[in-house]
Amino acid sequence: MTERDYYEELCDYYEVLVGEIPNRNELKEALQKTVITEDLEVFFLLPLAGNITLTELRTQAKLPPDKLHERLKRLASKGLIIAYKTEKDHAYEREHIIFMTEQQVRKGEEGPQRTFFARFFNTLIEGEGGFTVPTKTPFYRVLPAEPAITKSSALRTIDINIVVPDPRSILPIDIITEMVRKDGTLIGVAECFCRKTKKLVADDCGHPRETCFVFNKLAESLIEYGFARKIDYAEAIEILKDCEAHGLVHCVDNCEGQILSLCNCCSCSCILLRGVMRGQTNLSAPSRYVVSFDSEKCKSCKTCIARCPTDARFVVDEKVGVDADRCIGCGLCVTTCTTGSSKIVLRKETEKIYSSCPELYDQIGGEALAAFFERKQGS
Fold first, then answer.
1. In whole angstroms, what is the distance from residue 378 CA to residue 102 CA?
2. Coil, helix or strand for 21?
3. Is 1 inside any structural domain?
4. DSSP line for 291-341
């Protein structure tokens, strides 16, 4: 009887999620040095989607409670799963290969293992070897810098608690401080794994790194295992303001309900904006806004050129212009425009924003499975 190869199965599972993995054999070797077989036996008891409770796992694993607890802790400490408390029980969920790689880069000790995962993740950031995620729905969406909304007087502001039938108005889902406050039962902040990766491969862009926010169950797991630190709402807002000052773009889960993560991205290092720059539409959707530019008011100070993360601004004959097709609606150009020539206005058409994270990831998971079976039929 052939011995079960859990590491091959883990690579297979990851390829269902992201398509063909570059350097798969090297990844398998790295995984063999990262997680032990006994722990993967427990990993594969977890469902493909959603969580499983500790009570259910005890029944399935048939291990002494202390042994099961040790294996779950090791899996969470390596980023293969997240662990959190519910009202009735502890719960556990499998995590994405990119999530696992993030944690290896964040916390991994110096040495060959962290070097490999940094190089591997850099391959994903740069899209090397033709790597593209095989799903269609964007994982994230851009949130505009809040001062850009308030400076754009053409937009009608609303009280947050009022139900607005007109989707063309400013809504709570557009306002970063409301998204953080709404979901801020527990807030954690961690290093930007993209910029940490770039630092490790000697391509540091110099932007701030402690800029990745996580909330609630995701925050609980990452704080518990040393990947993030707990902060309060006031500190979160200060970090967000600093991110805007440094020209970083706010990206949140592509849903309007309880978000789990909020990244602050730069186009020099971050996987979301690097993908956008390559024309990928399935990593991060633009915000509900797009820049509106009045060339008559512009004095060509060119500040917006440096602020734009997607090269949507350009200069021809000493005059600034805008490529609206490249604009992601981050509003960073608006916040530093002293003439009022740049504003953001609501787009005529916007990407679908899902009602919750579970709905979003059910959609993406279904697309991943469909793409996987299509590849199998074509091989």
1. 31
2. coil
3. no
4. EEE-TTT-----HHHHH-TTS-EEEETTEEEE-GGG-----HHHHT-SSS-
Q: What are 294's two structure tokens? A: 């009045």
Task: State whether 282 and 192 are in the same domain.
Answer: yes
Q: Which amino acid appears at position 105 of this protein?
A: V
Query: Residues near 59 by Cβ (< 8 Å), separated by ≥ 6?
Result: none
Q: At what angle do helices 54-61 and 65-77 cross, to 10 degrees?
A: 110
Total domains in the fold of the chain: 2
Do 227 and 116 have their domain in common? no
Calculate mean pLDDT across residues 176-189: 86
| Cα 223 to the center of its chain, rounded Å | 17
Tens digits of residue pLDDT in 238-259: 999 999 999 999 999 999 988 9
The span from the CA of 157 to the CA of 223, in Å, is: 36
CATH code assigned at 309: 3.30.70.20
Per the structure, the complete domain to which residue 67 belongs is given by 6-133+360-378
Residue 234 CB-density burial (10 A; 0-12 exposed, 13-18 middle, 19+ buried): exposed
Query: Looking at the structure, do residues 329 and 364 belong to the same domain, yes or no?
Result: no
With tokens 């032990």, the residue in question is 36
Q: What CATH number is given to the structural domain containing 370?
A: 1.10.10.10
DSSP-H helix ranges across the chain = 6-18, 24-34, 37-43, 54-61, 65-77, 97-107, 112-126, 146-151, 176-182, 193-200, 216-224, 233-245, 271-277, 303-307, 332-335, 357-378
- State if pTM tops 0.70: yes
Quick one: 122 and 217 in the same domain?
Answer: no
Same domain, 250 and 114: no
My answer on whether 73 and 215 are in the same domain is no
Same domain, 260 and 351: yes
73 within some domain:
yes
- 116 shares its domain with 197: no
User: What is the C-alpha to C-alpha distance for residues 175 and 63, in angstroms, rounded to an integer?
Assistant: 47
The pairs formed by 95-98 with CB atoms below 8 angstroms and a separation of 24 or more are: 96/14, 96/17, 96/18, 97/14, 97/17, 97/18, 97/21, 98/18, 98/124, 98/271
The pLDDT of 198-226, averaged and rounded, is: 96
State the chain's maximal CA–CA distance in angstroms: 77
Is residue 35 in some structural domain? yes
Q: How far apart are CA 314 and CA 304, in angstroms?
A: 9
